[in-house]
Amino acid sequence: MQSIDDIEVSGRRVLVRSDLNVPLDKSGAVDPRGDDPSTTPRKTELRITDDGRIRASLPVIKKLAGRGARVIVMAHLGRPKGEDFAERAAGGPSLRVVADRLSELLGKPVAFATDLVGQSATATVAGLADGDVALLENVRFEPAETSKEESERLRLAQDLAKLGDVYVGDGFGVVHRKQASVYDLPKLLPHAAGDLVTAEVAVLRRLTENPAHPYVVVLGGSKVSDKLGVIGNLLGLADRVLIGGGMVYTFLAALGHEVGTSLLEADHIESCKEILASAAERGVELVLPTDIVVAPRFAADAPPTVVAADAIPEGHMGLDIGPASRDLFASKLADAKTVFWNGPMGVFEFPAFAAGTRAVAEALTKVDGLTVVGGGDSAAAVRSFGLDESSFGHISTGGGASLEYLEGKTLPGLTALEA
Length: 419
Ligand code: ADP
Ligand code: MG
Prior knowledge:
alpha/beta, 6-stranded parallel beta sheet, binds magnesium ion, binds adenosine-5'-diphosphate
């Protein structure tokens, strides 16, 4: 991959794909079973709860601007819904709040275009002087960005390509996505990998090439089906896999337990059974929580109760791993020499359900070896606990991307930059 240091950028329009998909908040966590309010908030209510991804994207933007480039940043936010640009733009979320934060962190104005390839983008880009920075509106307001139809994506990529002379891929959190601004656009312009992508890949390489053992993988979070798919492959890498968060309930169901109203992917019960069998066969220790913190509803003020993992009462949902499981998970991490962690153990945004995630985070700070935390929410959790970031080996901006890299998959956004 060509680095940005290898390309001439002075006086040129440089399109940078960054990952600025920061968590937004109105009231804390989002029930993954319902409509995601972070995608449809009223504009006045938007607040960035963790700006880690913006901070991680700054060095490349600064470096390019410092070298006299006209920097045009592209990024997505949330999961906009709607048939076309107009519907999606009306529903939000808009990247404007991110433009404001980016401007504060850069210490200079960031021109904001209210569309991607329309009049606003064209005028904004035309108005840039050398060293200026602009941000285009949420790329996912254009349905073509994520289209499965290559021709649709290509058309958007061609329009975006008119705005720039050079492409820089620096959005590590999206390199596993075959999307217009990630995969199709770099093919149309001279391109280079940004420093964030290069650094992330270098760390992940250390996790796959001769990692020290015991090697422990901790998985949680809410993107259950995404993550269930990867566990099978991780069994070839790790000595131990600890499972918490939303995906645990599908495993508990696979063991024949009732899970109440917890997150459950019934379609995946069979694959969980296979994973349990395959772990046993390969001698990989698959560790599930023995107790769960449950509540009658998904809310910060829902009363928490600790129950055995095989005795979740009807009408209750698991929102965190319990105290015995916290100790169990910490003990399974104590002798680790390599750890990869993706996904909170519970709904850490609600203080009553944050202890499991905190326990894993604290256990990682005590590990004598390489510890990598991947995932937007996992990284946000670590920072929300006020833990010193330097006590972790690496805090990655990408969860899904890290997991797919560890699985040995080719990542479209990296392939496009390599070509
Ligand atoms: P990451 O961004 O680190 O990859 P995910 O996006 O997969 O992680 O998941 C993060 C979300 O998972 C958090 O917002 C958290 O509230 C949620 N979560 C964790 N455990 C549960 C649970 N038991 N039920 C519902 N949501 C959960
Ligand atoms: Mg997330």
